[in-house]
Amino acid sequence: MTGKPLSRASAHHHIVVMGVAGCGKSTVGAALAERLGAGFLDGDSLHPQANIDKMAAGTPLNDDDRAPWLAEIGRRFPASESSLVIACSALKRSYRDIIRSADPSVVFVHLQGTRELLDARMKARPGHFMPPSLLDSQLATLEPLQDDEAGVAVDIAQPVEDIVNEVDSALAGLDTPTTERV
């Protein structure tokens, strides 16, 4: 880890839990928010209905579809008077840049897993608007965090509590724009 540790008493975390569909963004995000005493928002709740309908029909979103949604996610951070965790795919660097343009202090937590694990998780959540058929398009779009992006990457093939412990430890020592592989 680079940089000095953040003081837990004064740390004001703005975090995006990111990754492809099925990685556990909502579950991990909610657990992380609880651990940090932060608010939690599932970014899917901010999608316009047209985006949800498009994905439900098996059509991947394009950059034009995502831009207003990403801008709204970014706006939520400076509007929050306390720490906030938002679950959002944030698959491309350019998408993360849109979010960061509203609040440069945002830290990204990238949840990573094998295609097989992600597919199994997607198939185990019936009724979700994102069909498993879109997993490959998400994996093709995904751009991992780059060295100059504040964030951590965590393997999802472990219990949620262990993931949250790893992220919490990484956040305690992360206050400069570097990517730490946890």
- Describe the global form: globular
Given helix and strand content, the structural type is: alpha/beta
User: Whole-number radius of gyration?
Assistant: 15 Å
Number of strands: 6
Mean pLDDT: 83
The proportion of strand residues reads: 5-15%
What is the N-to-C succession of helices and strands?
A: EHEHHEHEHHEHE
User: What's the arrangement of strands in the largest beta sheet?
Assistant: 2-3-1-4-5-6
- Give the fraction of residues assigned to helices: 40-55%
Given as residue ranges, the uncertain stretches (5+ residues, pLDDT < 50) are 1-10, 175-182
Number of helices: 7
What does this structure look like?
With 182 residues, the chain is α/β, with parallel strands linked by helices. Helices cover 42% and strands 15% of the residues. The protein contains seven helices and six strands, in the order βαβααβαβααβαβ. It has helices spanning 25-36, 49-56, 63-79, 93-102, 115-123, 135-141, 160-172; strands spanning 14-18, 39-42, 84-87, 107-112, 151-155, 179-181. A six-stranded parallel beta sheet has the order 2-3-1-4-5-6, sandwiched between helices. The longest helix has 17 residues, at 63-79. The chain is globular, with a radius of gyration of 15 Å. The N and C termini lie close together (10 Å). Residues 1-10 and 175-182 have low confidence and may be disordered.
Secondary structure elements and pairings:
Layout: E1 14-18, H1 25-36, E2 39-42, H2 49-56, H3 63-79, E3 84-87, H4 93-102, E4 107-112, H5 115-123, H6 135-141, E5 151-155, H7 160-172, E6 179-181
Parallel strand pairs: 1-3, 1-4, 2-3, 4-5, 5-6
Helix pairs in contact: 1-7, 3-4
Catalytic activity: D-gluconate + ATP = 6-phospho-D-gluconate + ADP + H(+)
Protein name: Gluconokinase
Family: Belongs to the gluconokinase GntK/GntV family.
